[in-house]
Design goal:
Aspartate Aminotransferase, domain 1; 14% strand; four-stranded antiparallel sheet; globular; Aspartate Aminotransferase, domain 2; 2 domains; alpha/beta; 311 residues
C-alpha cells in the first residue's frame, strides 16, 4: 500500500499501480503545497500504508513541499519515505538523513546544471532491509540496487559492476567541479534570488500577471509559475514571447494548465538576474501586443531591487 503526492508524484504512483500496488493520491491545488497534516489524515484513513513518495520541488507547478515536516509524520507511522529531489538538489537544501528519507533520488540536469543522463540515490538501512526481504526484488540488472550494494558497496568499491557511461560521468565531474569552485551555498542563493525576483518582477509588470503559487515560502526556487491575465491564453502568450528570443527559459503549463500557467524555468545556468529580467520583458512585450497595459521598466527595477536585497 502506498501514498503518492502529485503532480510529478502521480507518475511514480502510476508506476506502482502497474506493479500491482494499491496507491492513494493526495491531490492539492497547484497554487499550494502538501502539508504534514494532510499526510497524517491520509494515514488515519489508510493505516495499512507502508510507503510514501513525494516530490520535493515540483518544477511543473512551481511548488516546493515541506519535506522535513512530512518526513516526521511518515517515520512516526513506520512507513518508508521516498523523495524525488531531482529538481531541488543544488537549488535548496536536500537533507535525506535529517528528514528521515529512506530513498532519495537526484539528477544533475536541473539546478546543478549538469548532464541529463545520470542520477544518484541514497538508501537508508531500513530500505536496504525491505529490499533484501523481498524475494521479487530485481536482480542481475544494471538497475538492481541490491546488486549494486553487494558488488560495489559491500565489495569495497573497487570495481564497478557495470561499464559506466563515460561521457556522462565526465560531464558530471565538470558539473561538480563548477559547483565546488563557487560553493553550494552560492548556487542555492542564486536560485533563491531568481525565484524571489521573478515573483516581484511579475507583480510589478502588472497587466493581471501574478504568481501562480500564492505563498512565496511554498514557491520552488527552480521555476516560478505565473497565472496569465484573464482573457489571455498562456500557451499563446508564451509562444509570442519566445518570438523575440527562442532561447528564453519560458514554457506554458502542461495539459490543461497550458490555458492559464506560464513557467519561468530559472534553474542551472538560467538562475541569473539578466535571464529573469529578459523573461519578464519578453512577457511584457507579448502582453502589450495582446492589448494589455504593462510596466516593463517597473518590472526591471523590481527584479534588480529584489536581487540585490540582503537575504
Amino acid at each position: 500500500m502506498g501514498v503518492t503526492l502529485v503532480s510529478y508524484g502521480q507518475t511514480f504512483g502510476n508506476w506502482l499501480r502497474e506493479t500491482g500496488a494499491t496507491v492513494h493520491d493526495i491531490s492539492v491545488p497547484f497554487h499550494t503545497a502538501v502539508t504534514a497534516e494532510q499526510i497524517r489524515e491520509a494515514f488515519a484513513e489508510h493505516p495499512e500504508t507502508d510507503f510514501v513518495s513525494l516530490v520535493h520541488a515540483e518544477a511543473a507547478t512551481g511548488n516546493t513541499n515541506p519535506v522535513a515536516e512530512i518526513g516526521k509524520v511518515v517515520r512516526e507511522q513506520g512507513a518508508l519515505f521516498y523523495l524525488d529531489a531531482v529538481a531541488s538538489v543544488g537549488a535548496e537544501p536536500v537533507l535525506p538523513d535529517a528528514w528521515g528519507v529512506d530513498l532519495c533520488v537526484i539528477g544533475a540536469q536541473k539546478a546543478m546544471g549538469g548532464p541529463a543522463g545520470v542520477s544518484a540515490i541514497s538508501v537508508s538501512e531500513r530500505a536496504w532491509a525491505r529490499m533484501a526481504a523481498n524475494p521479487g526484488a530485481p536482480r542481475r540488472s544494471y538497475l538492481s540496487l541490491l546488486d549494486w550494494k553487494e558488488r560495489w558497496i559491500d565489495a569495497g568499491r573497487k570495481a564497478l559492476p557495470h561499464a559506466p557511461a563515460q561521457l556522462e560521468m565526465l560531464a558530471l565531474q565538470a558539473c561538480l567541479e563548477r559547483i565546488e569552485s563557487v560553493g553550494l551555498d552560492a548556487v542555492m542563493d542564486r536560485h533563491r534570488r531568481a525565484a524571489l525576483a521573478s515573483r516581484a518582477g511579475a507583480v510589478a509588470l502588472g497587466g493581471g500577471l501574478e504568481p501562480y503559487v500564492h505563498e512565496a515560502a511554498e514557491a520552488a526556487p527552480v521555476a516560478t509559475t505565473l497565472r496569465a491575465p484573464s482573457g489571455v491564453v498562456a500557451s499563446e502568450l508564451v509562444a509570442r514571447a519566445l518570438e523575440s528570443d527562442p532561447a528564453l527559459p519560458l514554457a506554458a503549463g502542461g495539459g490543461a494548465l497550458a490555458e492559464e500557467m506560464i513557467r519561468v524555468n530559472h534553474y542551472g545556468a538560467d538562475a541569473r538576474r539578466d535571464v529573469v529580467e529578459s523573461c519578464l520583458v519578453a512577457l511584457g512585450t507579448a502582453l502589450a501586443e495582446f492589448g494589455v497595459t504593462v510596466a516593463p521598466e517597473e518590472a526591471r527595477q523590481a527584479v534588480t531591487a529584489t536581487w540585490e536585497r540582503r537575504l
